[in-house]
Structures are given as structure tokens and as C-alpha cells.
Design brief:
There is one protein chain. The protein is an alpha+beta fold and 524 residues long. Among the domains are: 172 residues, no CATH class; 161 residues, Roll (Pdz3 Domain). A four-stranded antiparallel beta sheet has the order 1-2-3-4. Strands 7-6-8-9 form a four-stranded antiparallel beta sheet, with helices on one face. It has a four-stranded antiparallel beta sheet with strand order 12-11-13-14, with helices on one face. It is elongated and about 85 Å long. 33% of the residues are buried.
Amino acid sequence: MTITTDAPPDQAPDAWPHQPQPEGAQWISGGAGSGETPYVWARLAAMVAVFGIAVYFFGAYALLMILALIVSIVLHEFGHYWTAKRSGMKVTEFFVGFGPRIWSFHRGETEYGIKAIPAGAYVRIIGMNNLEEIDPADEARSYRAQSAPKRVAVVLAGPFMNIMIALSLMFMVFLFQGQANGEWTVKGVQDGTAAATAGVQAGDRILSVDGDKVESWDHFRDQLNAKAGEQVTLVVDRAGQQVTLTPTLKWRLSDEGAAAIPSTPVLKKADAIISANGQPVATFADLKAMLEAPGAPVNLQIDRNSNTYQLIVDRPVTNLPAADKGSGGFLGVQEDPVLQRESPIGAIGEAFGSMKDVVVGTGAAFGHLFTPAGLSNYAGQVVDSTQATTTIPVTNEAGVLTPVGSSPAPDAAGAATDAARPISIVGIVHVGSQAAELGLWAFLMLVATVNFALAMINLLPVLPFDGGHAAIATYEGIRGSIRHEPYRADLTKMLPIVYGVFAVLVLLGTTSILLDVLRPPSIK
């Protein structure tokens, strides 16, 4: 039953007797009489519960990512809406969310409102497919009655909005924050590490390692990895003066080292093992001996990106591979890249360059996914996901205990290629909350990347995507121009393709949500 503000007072719910609302506003409920209001509250409660669950699992920053996704999708749909209106088409609905209505109002011929499930938005344009039955009086204003260029413009307006959002955000990032110019300094030095012992300080710029010039941060890491356990000579620039330091490098896990300990929770490449059961660990062989020894669980203290983690190995590990490939050199410093702001023209160029990188990367990832090797790898990730995860407590440098979500063990199938797998809305929210913790600019770059990805997916030339509607409109326009009369494609012949695409989407969506819950993606 629908209660409108135009109804007599005795017909309105007691809870809403004097609420100011837009003209024609409606509170929608599911019962009759004064018992209708609880249905509205139940739907509101369902919406709040969705946000609450996100906050519980991903933290308060998850709300920012959910809001960013909703705004991005609403603007996508607004592109369809505005272009359709400008083209004279009849738009009957514009809703944020899906499921039962919570609140709506009519303005003109369109109903605007909010629904209970905040998972996107939609616009309803009459006559979007040739099988829809509509009032003959509205036929001239239907989508299908318009020229091919108008229809193509309407369906492409949504992805265009996502592209414009992404370019605008990236432009802001490059203009106001800038990007790394290749130079870097030491951001911080961890206590008790080789860097701290040797006297490396925040703000130092490391010029060379054993006389070999440091070209970049990645080059510097490679230089250290080749000298694990050795004393090295560092030349650093400190406030304009060159200082020579001679630290003895400790060691950190390599790919082989991380994979060598299959039952250890979430050890990763580049983790630095500081101690085991309170005893300093000097080499990979020392760790190997401790883990293989029978007895009580082993308490590992590790450094990961200048954060201290506490890991518990519940059972001894046996049959570890040889230790000679298990480690790389560890100094104990964190990179602070030097950022250079772009001019407005330069920021535009960088934004388009980043768009190209996202398009190429996303296209390559999707292309690989649908190869036999890609599908096999993805299936392996899904099968192994429930057996290759754990949850660990983490302490930061101040010793404050914070929860960390489940992550893959390093020997898990596909662990090295997780970044190339599909990510669901659950994974996007998880990564978005991490990006928000890193700062505004990291968050905006992620939102921009997500918008580029939304645009690319929607441009796929198959139904039900926007690209599929554009392809059909283009085909109908070409056939019509050849015949010199309007032509409409027989959509019944395309239904098997639509059902097939829908089945693939459901399968990918379900499995990607499963992976994102059991093996959350991470940008840290």
C-alpha cells in the first residue's frame, strides 16, 4: 500500500503526520492501517545492517568506499538519465539501491527514491528492449523508437560518466599531490635493525651500496638482497653532507623462504624475522632449526613494511627446503618517495596515461582469466581458498593490538597471482578501507581506478552490459540504413547469449565473493 502526502490525514501513518517532504513524496510500506510503519523501519534497519556489517568486517573506512561506490554508480545512472531526458525519452524511475522501496517521490513523470539494499542504482527508460509492452501513446518516446545515434548516446553516457569521474580524480591527485619522480629518502628506521645500529636516520638519502650507485628503491632492495648477512658500506647524503656507514645486514624472506614454511600463517616475501620465542634469528637456517624442533608452538616476531607482527606457529614444521635460497638482505629502513606536482597540462597528460595503464592492465587480466590456464588457476584458487587462510593478531610499533583479516599462506595455489583475479564488491570495499587508511590521495586513486574498471566492464559488447545495448543499436542502425526503413533485432534469438553471460556473471560473482571473504585482497 502507498501512503502519499496528498491523502486525508486519517489515512496517513501516525508516525508521519507533519513531516515536510517533496511534492508527491511517498513512504512505502507493506501492510495496512497503523501497522504499516514498522515495515518501513524494518527496511531502514536492513540498510543500516548492511553498513554495520561492512564496518564490523572492514572498519569504519569501509563506509567511505561504500559511499564512493554508490556515488560512482549513481552518477553512471545519471548519465543515462540526463541523456535520455535530453533525447525526449520517457524515464519512469530513478532509484538508489535495490529491493523494497523505503522512500520515493514523483516529480513529473519520473519516480525518484531510495531502496533498502545500497548496492547501486538504476534508471528505467521505457522500451529498452523490443519485447517490452508499453502504452501506444508512449511509443514515440520509447528508447527503441529513437534513432540509433540517440540510443548509442544514452547507453554510452553511463560509462562516459565513470571515465570522467576517474580522469577528474586522477587530475586532482597529480595536480595537488604529484607523483614519485624516482628519488627517495629514508622515511623511518626500525629500532633494533641494522640501520638503527649503524646510525641511519630519517631524511637520509642513500647514494651507494659498496660503491654501486643506488638508481631507485627497487634497485636498492636488489642490492641488499644480494648481500644478506654481510657488512656493507653505505654512502648517504645527510643535510647536504656525505656520511659513510657500515651496517651488517640481517635477512628477510625471499619467495623461496616464504613458500618454504607452508603451515606458517601468512609469511610473505620481504618479511624480516626479528626473533623466534624471544631469541634473535640471524639466518634462515636458525629459523629452520627452531621450526623443525618438536615442542611448544613457536612465537615469531616479524617486520613487514615497518610494522611489527606477532605470528604463532602451532605445530613444528618438517622437511623444509634448503635454506640457501630462503633469504635476502634486510637493513630496516622505509622508503619516503619524493613527490613532484604536475602542472595542469601535465596532470591532464598523466591522468590519460594512467587511464591507458588501467585499460591495458584490466584488459590483459580479463584476457588471461578466460584462457585455459587462467580458468584453471582461478578454479584452483577457489578450491584451495578454504584451506590456505588464517587470521593473526598484529601489533604495531607502539605495541597496540589490532586485528588483521585473513590472508593466504604463501604456498597457496595462486597466491602469487591473486592480484589478477576478479575482485567482488566485498574485495573492493576491503581494499578501499585500506586505501583510506593510507590517505586521501591513495583513496582517490583507487576510486578512480574502480571507475575506469566499471566503464570497461560496462563497455563489453554483450548484453546486459551497456556495450551490448550500444552494439545492438549500431547493428539496427546499419541494417535500417541499408533497408531504408527502421529495423529491430530479434532479441529472442539473443536470449541464450544473455542467459549464458548472466550465468557467467553469477558464477564469477559468487566465487569472487568467496575468495574475497576467505582470501581478502590487499594493497599494503
